[in-house]
Design brief:
Strand content of chain A: under 5%
Shape of chain B: globular
Strand content of chain B: 15-25%
Structural class of chain A: mainly alpha
Number of strands of chain A: 0
Distance between the termini of chain A: 40 Å
Helix content of chain B: 10-25%
Oligomer: heterodimer
Largest interface: A-B, 56 and 54 residues
Number of helices of chain B: 11
Largest sheet of chain A: none
Radius of gyration of chain B: 22 Å
Order of helices and strands of chain A: HHHHHHH
Structural class of chain B: alpha+beta
């Protein structure tokens, strides 16, 4: 399921002239880490959101193809429309994917550099053991 | 029973293959946030032996994460995935770490307003608290230091908010007073202050409790309060690993004098329920300050993450319509999902990140919810459905923030309401008067939680009395925000600490 999640994230956060996209932000490593560390229910929610993203273009752009098979223009239009869906649960499902992906995108040194922010040190992941 | 501990000790996670923890102290305090830590240090100063039992791990500033991802993983309960059930699914924000939510909040210090004590007395029969709680709040301020946000640490977002509020003539537009000492404006409050400037409980009252001979047990969620009839005699539970969530060995901590429950608004009611407390008010009267934000877009860079995460506030609208307004800087990780849309349009919006400032409203909501156990009993389920009057307040707050942004020089605002344009100019904000009142159209969170074990003099409508004692029980005290029977309309940490110190002092005759 990870490739589907990855494809949805790249369409939601594409590379543009102004900004690095999710694909420029070590996305594979992030997803591997996220899948390993997050609780199963969180990961299941993100997979469900990604599936919804890929299966819904017929409702947003009228094309009966999965999102990953759309033309770049249609995929971009679909990404915006599905994220702004008038159906709350659909919107929330896509929000979950955006939220997780935003963690990778927003913390990446390339994005932070674009915003004149210093790179973040690694999270220690430590605690008192004595 | 063996006493397997010695004074002044921290016991972290113990695996299943390690020996069980069995200890005895005078007082066991469940939870280490504002309520638990304050109660514990008050008890320890009286010479009593005290154990603090915390569900999360003990992380020092060197251990704090730097990213929002790390913050959710290491410091927050269930990755911040708990949401209130209602028409809208709004996150319920609570930490799970030594020091509790004081580690991840903005350390905002506001004294309990006078009208709150009057309301507690008239509506709940809670008397004789005002002088002692306010005296305790005074003491806390002196002990852990409180300062106004230093000028060099304010950052442009906070300065602009002050300017906007002043220009609009708001009666209360001020830089915040916070539990900080020499704030450097690192903008990292939400992930824990690695600069050690924020005076969270893990840096003061918990180490002091330990230094006074206390036993600190971390990664140890309590299953239930042990009892001998209607008398609390200790707590028991099982360690949980901080990262893998694997179960460890059991612990039992016996209390010679009392058990103080300060496990949070969502967990304290469930812990009492699992422990056999039967009160018709248990889990009822849950309240909060639901909040949402409005972005202002400025010509010059704002760089809202430079400076105090939260540095300006106003309670000018606390009574009418019932709002608190304040700044809140969030990092790019969170703005990425906070802005609506997807694809290249979203990226063009995010490209403006340096030029936006987010200011927030917190509704002094009249909505009342409940807290109940999940199907298998250990996870709290919050039911909360905003009433229309509260949504009206939120809508008014959005417009107030929009006006404040424009007074401060914004060229556009981003209201963040589904069904409204992504941006509005100054001439367009009249449309906010007709913004939808459906909570599903807002991206919001529930912060500042209250109730679930509310205090009062009637056991039919309250769980504890005005000294925090559980009705019908002996030696069982609740000392966190769950006892607060009303909304405060201000940040609650100071009130929680004042109440906890007062309840604990009562236990030791102080």
């Amino acid at each position: 399921m990870t490739p589907l999640v990855r494809a949805a994230i790249i369409l939601l956060y594409p590379r543009t002239e102004l900004m690095p996209g999710a694909d420029d932000c070590d996305l594979d490593a992030f997803l591997e880490r996220f899948r390993r560390e997050a609780s199963p229910i969180v990961w299941i929610g993100i997979v469900a959101g990604a599936l919804l993203f890929h299966l819904s273009p017929v409702f947003t752009v009228g094309v009966p193809l999965p999102a990953f098979a759309l033309s770049p223009e249609k995929a971009d239009l679909h990404a915006d429309r599905i994220a702004n869906s008038s159906i709350y649960l659909v919107r929330q499902s896509i929000f979950l994917v955006k939220f997780a992906a935003g963690m990778a995108w927003g913390a990446h040194p390339r994005v932070r550099e674009r915003f004149a922010m210093a790179p973040l040190p690694p999270d220690p992941g430590t605690w008192r053991t004595s | 029973m063996s006493v397997a501990t010695r004074p002044g000790r921290h016991i972290p996670f113990r695996g299943k293959d390690e020996r069980e923890l069995d200890a005895e102290v005078d007082f066991v305090v469940v939870g280490s946030g504002a309520g638990g830590a304050t109660a514990a240090v008050t008890l320890a100063r009286s010479g009593a032996s005290v154990a603090i039992v915390e569900a999360g791990a003990w992380r020092d500033p060197e251990d704090y994460p730097h990213s929002a991802y790390g913050g959710m993983r290491d410091l927050m309960e269930d990755w911040s995935t708990q949401v209130a059930r209602g028409r809208a699914l709004w996150p319920v924000v609570q930490a799970r770490t030594m020091g509790g939510t004081t580690v991840v909040n903005s350390a905002i210090c506001v004294r309990t307003p006078d009208d709150i004590f009057a309301q507690w007395e008239t509506e709940h029969g809670v008397r004789d608290l005002k002088q002692r709680v306010l005296a305790a709040e005074d003491r806390v301020e002196r002990e852990i230091t409180v300062e106004e946000v230093p000028p060099a640490s304010r950052g442009r977002s906070n300065i602009l908010a002050k300017r906007g509020g002043d220009l609009l003539g708001w009666s209360d537009s001020h830089y915040m007073r916070r539990y900080t000492s020499g704030c450097e404006g690192a903008g990292q409050c939400l992930q824990g202050c690695t600069k050690r400037r924020k005076q969270s409980m893990n840096l003061n009252y918990i180490p002091e409790t330990r230094a006074r001979g206390g036993l600190i047990v971390s990664s140890a969620p309590v299953d239930r309060v042990m009892s001998d009839g209607p008398r609390a005699v200790g707590v028991t539970g099982r360690f949980v690993h901080p990262t893998t969530r694997a179960e460890g060995t059991r612990f039992r901590i016996h209390a010679r004098k009392a058990v103080v429950v300060a496990a949070s608004v969502t967990h304290s009611p469930l812990l009492l329920l699992r422990s056999g407390v039967r009160s018709p008010a248990l889990g009822k009267f849950f309240r909060s300050h639901p909040g949402t934000g409005v972005f202002g877009c400025y010509d010059d860079p704002i760089d809202m993450n430079v400076g105090a995460t939260q540095g300006w506030a106003s309670i000018a609208f606390r009574q009418d319509p019932g709002l608190k307004l304040e700044t809140l800087a969030i990092p790019p990780e969170l703005v990425a999902s906070r802005f609506s849309g997807g694809g290249t349009l979203l990226m063009s919006r995010l490209a403006e990140f340096r030029h936006v400032a987010m200011w927030c409203l917190a509704v002094r909501a009249e909505t009342v919810g409940t807290i109940s156990p999940s199907l298998f009993g250990h996870r709290p389920v919050v039911h909360y459905d905003m009433v229309p009057a509260d949504m009206e307040r939120a809508r008014k707050g959005v417009k107030l923030l929009a006006q404040q942004h424009f007074a401060a020089g914004a060229k556009e605002i981003i209201p963040g309401i589904v069904g409204m344009p992504f941006k509005l100019t100054k001439d367009e904000i009249g449309v906010l008067d007709d913004a939808p009142l459906d909570p599903r159209c807002y991206v919001a969170i529930l912060s500042h939680l209250f109730g679930g074990c509310v205090m009062g003099n009637d056991p039919r409508t309250s769980v504890v009395d005005s000294r925090g004692r559980v009705h019908g029980w002996e030696r069982l005290i609740v000392a966190d925000a769950s006892v607060i029977p009303t909304n405060l309309g201000v940040n609650p940490q100071h009130t929680i600490m004042g109440l906890a110190a007062t309840f604990a002092a009562d236990l030791v005759g102080g």
